[in-house]
Amino acid sequence: MNGTGRPGPPLWLLAELTYRCPLHCVFCYNPVDFATREDEMSTDDWLRVLREARAQGSVQCGFSGGEPMLREDLEVLVAEAHRLGYYTNLLTSGVGLTETRIAALKDAGLDHIQLSFQDSTREVNDFLSHTRTFELKEKVAAMIKAHGYPMVMNVVIHRLNIDHVDRIIGMADTVGAEYLELANSQYYSWAEVNREHLLPTRAQIARAEAVTARWRERLDGRMRIFFVVPDYHENRPKRCMNGWGNVFLTITPDGTALPCHTARMLPGLAFPNVRDMSVHDIWYESEGFNRYRGTGWMKEPCASCDEREKDLGGCRCQAYMLTQDPAAADPVCAKSPHHQRVADAVARAESGAANEQPLIFRGPAESRRLAGQDYAPGRSSPPVPAAENPPKVTDRS
Amino acid sequence: MSTAANADTCPVIGRGFRLQWEAAQDCHVLLYPEGMVKLNQSAGEILKRCDGTRDVAGIVADLERTFAASGLEKDVLAFLDMARGQKWVQW
After folding, report:
1. Which residues fall within 8 angstroms of residue A123, CB to CB, at 6 or more apart?
2. Measured by CB atoms within 10 angstroms of the end CB, which terminus of chain B is less buried, N or C?
């Protein structure tokens, strides 16, 4: 889509069924204020969304969250998605994926399971230690294989676990994953709150890439590894979501339709809700989906840049978080007048400067606290008075 | 494992992949975990015949009959070897 033609179909439908989650990941991309949005759509609402999006050409359907296993109607939704002709993907932490439910999902026609390994432990350094969660995930991985699903293992990579990449790849190979995503954290939502803790050094990234390259040779195609580089360390922005309103349609738990997981943070844009508007009108007619499509909305330096069709100006959320202007160039780009803000964050990571602020674990209490303080994305750290530093882990109910 | 395709090979769509016609895109697509390959017409016509019951000789004969063509075997074999490298097909 070049700003003049009709956009293609919303090929990817991401159904974020719930923001509820038993885990407390410090890099979660769910909105920081998720606990103030507890409304969830009914089964019938979701069934209608599945039908409408399929009629518009959606073909990949991801069931995500939060933790989608917390929805008791997941099997019903998967069965309908399968009947409609979607390729159905379940994106799960594995918590709640019992033998009974994994078999029921297979019967419903689920095509694939993406199992994520996260830091859910009290000490992030325990990431690969044999905690209860780790053992549970290994068990779930074995179940996924036993039921004949292809398995993608997803591990969000950051400063605190990037030096474990060798063991992570070994673990993925041992459990028989067909694909492994080593996804360097992108700095949105909870990861943005915790950015100073999570941003790796260049040396760490270089070592992890070298380890990954050695494994690729050894694996001889048995498992495909995707290594997503952290965009802060690049000098050109990513082609975010492969273009705004180009292939990707996210539906949040309350039915809000977004061009990406985090776009709701952007000011001055009313995103439509599937309870009020058809998927067709959302995709082709709504202001929210048309605002940053193509290149027509661009300012300088993007508007006259000869790479504008390639990266489409990068990420609107990142532009807003780092410049407070959602139509600015993504500051990851060295041509952005605000690139220094990214360079400064990387430089702080290189220097290993001490963090006075503790890691903030995702949880309802933290979410309400941050929402109540009117947390504004883009601050170098969230407003946590030093005297009120919360315990490292709160609200693990 | 590394045997190249020949006339007796019986290819079948790879595990975890699904081939289907997508009217919205006016083409065959191959779907796999979180991804999609849009196929051009020749690739779609070859792959839809990879049902595990036909060997390459049968697939080529059917294609040549359907499209009133001849001498397709070399192209079909080259495509299948490439496709197996991508895990789109197996045998």
Report:
1. none
2. N
Instruction: Average the pLDDT over B53-65 and give the result.
Output: 96
Q: How far apart are CA A125 and CA A134, in angstroms?
A: 13
Q: How confident is the model at residue A24 (pLDDT cuts 50, 70, 90)?
A: confident
The residue assigned the tokens 């690049």 is A234
A-B contacts (CB, under 8 Å): 46
Q: Which chain B residue has the Cα nearest residue A14?
A: B34
A-side interface with B, Cβ within 8 Å?
A: 8-9, 11, 56-57, 59-60, 62, 85, 87, 89, 111-112, 114, 150, 152, 178-179
| Long-range Cβ contacts of B33-40 (<8 Å, 24+ apart) | B33/A87, B33/A89, B33/A111, B33/A112, B33/A114, B33/A150, B33/A152, B33/A178, B33/A179, B34/A60, B34/A62, B34/A89, B34/A112, B34/A114, B34/A152, B35/A60, B36/A11, B36/A59, B36/A60, B36/A87, B37/B86, B37/B88
Q: How far apart are CA A369 and CA B60, in angstroms?
A: 66
- B54 within some domain: yes
Q: How far is it, in rounded angstroms, from Cα A77 to Cα A61?
A: 11
| Mean pLDDT value across residues A128-142 | 69
pLDDT at A379: 42
Structural domain harbouring B44? 12-86
A273, exposed or middle or buried, with CB in 10 Å at 0-12, 13-18, 19+? middle
Does B67 reside within a domain? Answer: yes
Count of domains observed in chain B: 1
Can you give the pTM of this predicted structure? 0.88
What CA–CA distance (Å, rounded) separates A108 from A120? 30
Query: Which residue from A minimizes the CA distance to B27?
Result: A57
CA distance A351 to A329: 27
Which is nearest to B48 in space by CA: B69, B22, B71? B22
* Average pLDDT estimate for A261-275: 92
Specify the CATH number for the domain of residue B54. 1.10.10.1150
Q: Which residue of A has its CA nearest to B85?
A: A221
Strand order in the sheet with B35-38: B18-22, B27-32, B35-38
What's the rounded Cα separation, in Å, for the pair A189 and A16? 16
* Cβ within 8 Å of A, B 33-52: 33-36
Encode pLDDT of A214-236 as tens digits: 999 999 888 999 998 888 998 99
- The answer to whether the beta carbons of residues B28 and B22 sit under 8 Å apart is yes
- Residue B4 belongs to a domain: no
